[in-house]
Amino acid sequence: MRAVLPRVPALVPPALRDVVPVVTYPQFLVALVVVTAVPLAVALGGDLRRPGPATVFLLFVQAVLGVNVLSHAASAAFLGGYSPGLATALAVNLPFSVYLLRRARRERWVGRRTLLVLLPAALVFHGPGLLALLAAAGRLAR
Description:
This protein is mainly α. The chain has helices at 8-11, 25-45, 53-79, 86-106, 112-141. The protein is globular, with a radius of gyration of 16 Å. It starts with 7 loop residues before the first helix and ends with a helix.
């Protein structure tokens, strides 16, 4: 990421340059810590043996990680080669997302409607939500 982030502003289409924040490596690291620590705190503090808000939140996070796989694949295509995180996305996030979401459906951890809402919610979060998180991380990193 340290090598790719400086190249990103030049790759963003002109129409989106006012929307997509310039992200520094420290901002990226702050955002990464936040998106790792919050689900971990929920998992450690929640009772995951019973369906409830913690279960829904963690399934949502896994759905976002599933969408993130598509993002990494698109980034690799856009960059014309490997993009940072692609190997992890394909080797870890994709199979675990498929496994966990299928298991949640099979074992009825949450209702069918909740599972159906996870994908669109993950798409929204991974787009505008991620941009907002990166902007907030920029403020924290300063």
